[in-house]
Predict the structure of SDR family oxidoreductase.
Amino acid sequence: MKRRAGSFNGNGSGKRILVAGGAGFIGSHLCDRLLESGHKVICVDNLLTGNEQNIRPLVNHPHFRFLKQDVCELGPVDEPLDQVYNLACAASPSKYQADPVHTMMTCIRGTSNLLALAENKKAAFVQASTSEVYGDPTEHPQRESYLGNVNCTGPRACYDEGKRAAETLCFDMRRLGRVDARVARIFNTYGPRMQPDDGRIVSNLIVQALTGEPLTIYGSGEQTRSFCHVADLIRGLTALMNVLSAPSGPVNLGNPGEFTINELAQMVLELVITDSTIKHMPLPIDDPRRRRPDITLARRLLNWQPQKPLKEGLAETVDWFAAFLHRSDTPRSALPRRRADQKLIGPPQRLSAGA
Ligand code: NAD
Ligand code: UDP
């Protein structure tokens, strides 16, 4: 499990890092962060749910390379590598259920291919796992020691069980001394660059409010989630990769603030001037009723905790989506209506409350 000490820029600080899923929402922020820190980044992505726009500002960066590849059929990588992050996998329920067999294969074959690459290059490895490994949890909040309550035959299983199997691969490779593998169990993350049609709750509610469409709430809206801003998550992922003594098990990364979906919808309605109403729709099968991370381990091992309050992060994300929708070819009739004396976003005093 020796780690390569190579440097490409002559000053000893830059590492060669492969980010699988680097054109996605979280992956593109990770690529940004790694380049800003002076590293060289190879982004591997098949653009299934990612978007070239996310990495467009990076393509001319001298230390960035994009390989359009499916991790299930990973080709050779010529350069030495110091670190591999595996974020390749659709994360939104509607997207990962669209081709469930491919999702499962991405988790198993894709992770296996990337672990083999990391072994070959003697690179450290961070796996983006998920709070979905806890399923519909019967323990609350969720600690890493909780073994979960997952339906292995339901429509979410391709993702939940795929991610659980990927964790198994990581810990077996680690126990065998073949890869310095680390596993982050990521809880719901939000922020700029979520895809507007992704189907996830934060992007759905914001886009619906901005376009005057009804805000869709599945079930009663009393189910809970915990929302972590993407900048906080990136700090956590890089801390996990770089902590000297690798944690022996998975580490939860998420914001322990817990909100019902109804509360989240109200926050969005406070931030956007809109005529949108609430529309209730059926709750999807196996939708977890509540979710909140216990981050004691991340605090202790990584000295990490989220910093951005939800209201502040949501306001920033609303701004980003508003700018995105105005830039894109969304019909003008569907854009938020503004009077000259109205601000699109709610008054600043609403943004200062902690989450
Ligand atoms: P995303 O869908 O925006 O990004 C995933 C990226 O992986 C996309 O760019 C997609 O094109 C790429 N991809 C998918 N299958 C691939 C394959 N077979 N080969 C190559 N590339 C492939 O999702 P995200 O929110 O950025 O999530 C990134 C990772 O974090 C995922 O592994 C996800 O499971 C995990 N995660 C995310 C959240 C969250 O709330 N966003 C929560 C828990 C875990
Ligand atoms: N949800 C909702 N309306 C939407 C999208 C999602 O009420 O338009 C609910 C969904 O049923 C779940 C929660 O919001 O209870 C979070 O959904 P998301 O797809 O963002 O992530 P999950 O945590 O379920 O993977």
User: Anything to note?
Assistant: Residues 21, 23-27, 45-50, 70-72, 87-91, 106, 110, 128, 130, 186, 188-189 surround nicotinamide-adenine-dinucleotide (ligand 1) (CB under 6 Å). The radius of gyration is 20 Å. The domain at 16-188+229-253 is CATH 3.40.50.720 (Rossmann fold).
